[in-house]
Amino acid sequence: MEASLASLRQAVFRFAEKSAALSARYHRAKLVGAEHLPLAGPVLLVGNHGVWGYETPAFFHLLHRATGRHPVGLAERGFFRIPLVRTVLPWLGGVEGTRENALAALGAGALVVCYPGGARETFKRSHGRYRLRWERALGFARLAARAGVPVVPFAGFGVDDTFFWPPGEERLCLRLADGDKYRMPLVMGLGPLPLPVQLTFALGAPHEPPPPDAPESRLRAFKDRVAASVRWLLVRACHV
Questions:
Q1: E-strand spans in 22-172?
Q2: pTM to 2 decimals?
Q3: Which domain covers residue 158, as residue numbers?
Q4: CB within 8 A of 60, min separation 6: which ones?
Q5: Cα–Cα distances in Å, from 33 out to 1, 36, 141, 155, 205?
């Protein structure tokens, strides 16, 4: 039984890797600023999320190709209420986005990817394109301070243009779980495929973390500095 499960897990992982490489090729995806990533040791990557989170596999593929490291993604907790998703996500490098899981991954020297906007950015509507939804996002600042790891900001451009919203988008919503942030706008692509826009991911210089005992005001200032870097990188990415 365990051998069969291990084989299934490997098969799913290989399929996901091939699909991610295909997505990166389809969108002519490129990574800018890879020199800011260490080839070893823990680091926390923080940036914007695209609609439906569709861009994530291509981004992770580029990170692996640039560093030889498989990133660990901090996933929205709500997804782990779905039986199949909570089984498969860890096979693909996703862990429930708790502080304990994040600290464990960083303690193991992983390259950890965090989207502070979470589902609020993933399930955005058209008027929310490329807007950071980090109003309550102090978690990554606390995590960086406690783990003592640098934060590398990143921005994905094109990630909110892979689909378009049909008329009446306010009415075309589904509920994944309780709460408005899980309201999912229906979006459309080019027939069965997403729109073939180019995806560009830009990485910035690392931010040194606040001290472990930093007060909330300092954590907020740190969050704002990282957010400003992401916004600046978005401007840079759209001109690369």
A1: 30-32, 43-47, 72-75, 94-96, 111-114, 151-157
A2: 0.90
A3: 27-237
A4: 20, 70, 71, 73, 93, 113
A5: 44, 6, 22, 11, 8
- Residue 63 within any structural domain of the chain: yes
Q: How many domains does the chain have?
A: 1
More confident residue, 173 or 92: 92
Is 15 domain-assigned?
no
Provide the pLDDT for residue 193: 83
> CA 232, CA 103: separation in Å to the nearest integer?
28
What DSSP string runs through 131-177? ----TT--HHHHHHHHHT--EEEEEEESTTSSSBPPTTTTT-EEESS
Residue 114: which CATH number?
Answer: 3.40.1130
Residue 127 in domain: yes
